[in-house]
Amino acid sequence: MVWLFIAMYQLVYYSEQKDLVDRQRYDIVALGKAITNAESGQRGYLLTGHTLFLDTLEQGRIETRQVMAKLDKQSLDVTEIRPELERVKQLVHQKFDVMDQSIQVQLHAGEFSPHLSLSKDKGREVMKLIDDQLDAIDGKLQRMRESFEQEIRKRMFASVVGAILLGVLIIGVLLFSYRSTTHLLEQVLENQAVAKQASHQADHDLLTGLPNRRSVDVHLANTYQLARHTSKQFAVLFMDLDGFKLVNDKYGHGVGDALLIEVADMFKKVLRQSDFLARQGGDEFVLVVGSYLYRHELTQLAERLIRLFAQPVVVRGIPLEIGVSIGIAEYPHHGKHVKQLLHVADKAMYDSKKNGKNRYRFGSE
Predict the structure, then answer these.
(1) Annotated catalytic residue 283
(2) Considering 205, 240, 275, 283, which one is annotated as catalytic?
């Protein structure tokens, strides 16, 4: 009986430890995203000079501090990653120092402008070190998670064996132990199923860092509800890259993935902060545009997106000839429901492809 209770206690302990590791892995991803968001704001300011991008930088800085504070607190329970985490903290401070210096150089431009390229090189170098450290931490956490799962399986097996032996010895205790053990095992299995489901329901695309299909559904549902109450319009743009399959076939998926990352960055540079851009899957992207008054605003946006590919996109030193076909659906003109709008935008995008590619088309009323 003592053996059984020890095994059950350890089972709960290892389950909690695994959940803690899962939360830390999530926060590691969140830290990388926060730094990337801050870096996007810095790049936007350096490229355009618009101070609006400084808000994005500051928001990324705040999110970075918040995530680092959470990781600091959690590392008290998981000391194995503390050395790497301390190194990450140093690099993050260094990264933001470099970004702040580049902004100061931009503000005082002129004779100091050559320092901009030096700051960019230094920023990329530090970001590479941060990514390496985050990958190292995630790898260590993944190994710890696998170890905890092994221990959980061992304890579950030990619990079952203990319950069987206990049942052979005392029939009465068997009934009590069976009910207690079954209930606890069901709780553990249910917690594992919930944690596994949550890990598969991440809301961002791992390759491009953009929101994924699940996030599109959530964002569109919220936008739709807001539009119904405020009587405002919004638009859904379906975008599919032209020539992407040829790139994959000719240069391989490595270049194809690098191209998707570059295209996502190009899209973000011409969008407003309020626009919602997501990767739907493969080479398809979805853009949700709200807060506009006239259709010509959407026309101008679509033309800007198409002009991005007027010149070849250089990836890994390779100039790639691609384009983008766009389908546009407006609420409430093209549909009263989200699914209807998605269908109209998707069909309009395919019509763009049929009519010559690298162009846009509004859906039918």
Answers:
(1) yes
(2) 283
